[in-house]
Protein: ABC transporter, ATP-binding protein
Amino acid sequence: MTIDPSDINMDPPAIVIKNLTVSYGPKPALLDVSLSIEKGVLAGVIGPNGAGKSTFIKAILGFVKKDTGSVSILGIPAEKAKGLVAYVPQRGAVDWDFPIQVKEVAMMGRYGSIPWYRDCRKQDWELVDKALEMVRMSDFRNSQIGQLSGGQQQRVFMARALAQGSDILLLDEPFAGVDAATERAILDVLEQAKKTGRTLIVVHHDLATAAEYFDRLILIKQRVYAYGTPQAVLQEELLSEVYEGRLKIFAELAGRK
Structure:
């Protein structure tokens, strides 16, 4: 879909969500969510299981039908801005038995920029190689994706998103099920991507590391309870309300002694 130049705000936020409601059957997964996310942040989406975190990401991408509300990406209606956003799904959503090499998975990130009538160019492969290097998977470029460990597979899908060249990256639980070394490697990639000016929105389940990993947090349980710095969001009263007493809250989560 062609983007009309008149749709472009010269200095818009990365993502603006207004009055967004998404339902699965009679129950809303997201309820009247309004939020503006500035450019260049590394933001974690936190909340209890079933709070709507993944639905939040999918609603931004247009993967789920909205009951009401709107989403804009860099000032452009989300439905016109697909090329501006890259997505890294949960590992469980991917068929890892499909016979494809690492470099071919990463090249999928370039497909939106390649017309159907032309093959991948040298420049496309250079971007793929750069993305694989960034996630420390260059040595595996000719390996079958199914032969890799879970953490390596996650990093390859991050390379695919980086190769797309999008300004905004949305990641759904990238740290789930990986070892400590891979978790550190993924975090390094996120921090490098942020330094290039990208905006990153990451679904995350571990409150103990949220303050360390992210410079902004989005606290969700159907609606957005808070958005801001970890110190502002990781407040005992807020967490008690959202997690309904099921979470033992430590003062140090909010950076307090």
